Amino acid sequence: MGVHSKKLLQAQMLQLLVLLVALLIAATTTLPLSKPGCPGMCGHVEIPFPFGTNKTCSLNTSFLITCNHTFSPPIPFLANSSSSSRPVPVLDISLDGKLQISLPVATYCLNKRTLVTRSQEFSLAPFHLSSKQNKLIVLGADAAGLVYNNDEYSDILYSTVACVSLSTEPTPIETCSGTFCCETPIQQRLSNFLYISFVNIFNENDTNKLQSYPCRYTFLVKDGVYNFNISDLLNFNSTSTFPVVVDWALGNTCQDAKKNASSYMCKSNYSEYHCAEGGHGYYCKCSIGFQGNPYLPGGCQDINECEGSNDCLKGTSTCTNSPPGSYSCLCPKGYEGDGKNNGTGCSPKFRNNRIIIIALSEYIIVC
C-alpha cells in the first residue's frame, strides 16, 4: 500500500471516529423522559412520566399505557379507557397536559335496502376531550350527527353537540359550510360520551337522496386536520380513524398544585406549574432555558444555547452557556458590549490618551 493510500485510509478512519464520538455524545445527552429503568417508547410513541407502561412506571393507574406488541411496530393504548367498540390508540403524549388519541367514525348507511348503523361510545375518565381543539364533522345528504354526554352519576342521556348537513343545493360544494358537510366546535369537557350519525328527520323519506348518497358519517377530529372533499360523499372510508386532542391534568383544581408538598408533582428544580384549561388541575413545565421532564427529580436540564441558534455576533463574539437558563456573548479583548446582534454588539474600547504637562521652574516635561 502506497503512502498516499495509507494517508487516505487514516483520514477516513479519523472521520469515522469523529462521527462515532458525535453519535455517542448525542446519545448520552438525550434526556430520558420516563422513570429510570422504565420503557421510554412504545412503537413510535414516546411514553414520558407520569405515563408509563406498567404500574411501577406510571404515576397511577389513570396514567397507565398498554403497549400492545402484537402489532408491528407496537401500538400504545389508554389502559384506563373503556369502549363498546375498540381500545383507544394513543398517537402522541405531551408533557404540557395534552395527548392525542385516534377515534373511529360513526356511520348510517342504507345498504341494499338494509339499514346499517354504527355508533361510537367511549370513556376517557379522568381525562376529557379538549374544549378548544376538536370539531364534530358530519358528512352526507341531509345528515345529522349528535354527541351525547354519558354522565355516570345521572340516568339522563342528553345531547351536548349537534350538527346537521343539508342538501339544499343541487350539487355539493367544496366547503364544509352546512351543505353536504357541516362542522361545529366541541366546547364541552367530555369524558364519557357517545356519538351517532343518522338521517335528518325532516327529510328521512327522501328515497332519491338516500339512494344517491346512501351513507352519512359523523366523527370527531382535531381542528385543522380534515378538509372536506366532494368525493368523500361516495368514497369515504368508513373504517378511517381521526386524531383527537385530549386534556390531562394533575389534581382537581389549579389551587391543588402546592397545597401539599408531598403530592406536588413538579419535582425538578427549574420547573413550575401552570393551570390546566379552565383551571381543572395543573401541569408542570420546565422553566425558560431548560428542557426535559419536570415531573422527575433533576428532569429539567439547562439548554446549551451555544450549540444551537443564538444571537451572538458570528465570528466576533464568543458564546458562553451561562448563567443557568441563558447564555452570554463575550466580545474579544479590546472590545466592549453585549456581543449580540440585537444588542449593543461589540465596539472598540475608547482609550483616553492624555498628555500630562508638568512645569518645573524653567523646564517643561511632557509625559
Automatic annotation (TrEMBL):
Transmembrane segments: none
Pfam family, one: EGF_CA
UniProt keyword annotation of Transferase present: yes
Keywords recorded for this protein, A-Z: Disulfide bond, EGF-like domain, Kinase, Receptor, Signal, Transferase
Endpoints of the signal sequence: 1-30
Origin superkingdom: Eukaryota
Keyword Zinc among record annotations: no
Compartments (UniProt record): Membrane
Domain EGF-like span(s) in chain numbering: 302-341
Molecular function GO terms recorded: calcium ion binding; kinase activity; polysaccharide binding
GO CC, one annotated term: membrane
InterPro entries per UniProt: EGF (IPR000742), EGF-like_Ca-bd_dom (IPR001881), NOTCH1_EGF-like (IPR049883), WAK_GUB (IPR025287)
Membrane topology of this protein: Single-pass membrane protein
Stored Gene3D superfamilies: Laminin (2.10.25.10)
Disulfide pattern: 312-329
PANTHER family according to UniProt: OSJNBA0016N04.9 PROTEIN
Protein name (record): Wall-associated receptor kinase 2
Organism: Mucuna pruriens
Gene: WAK2
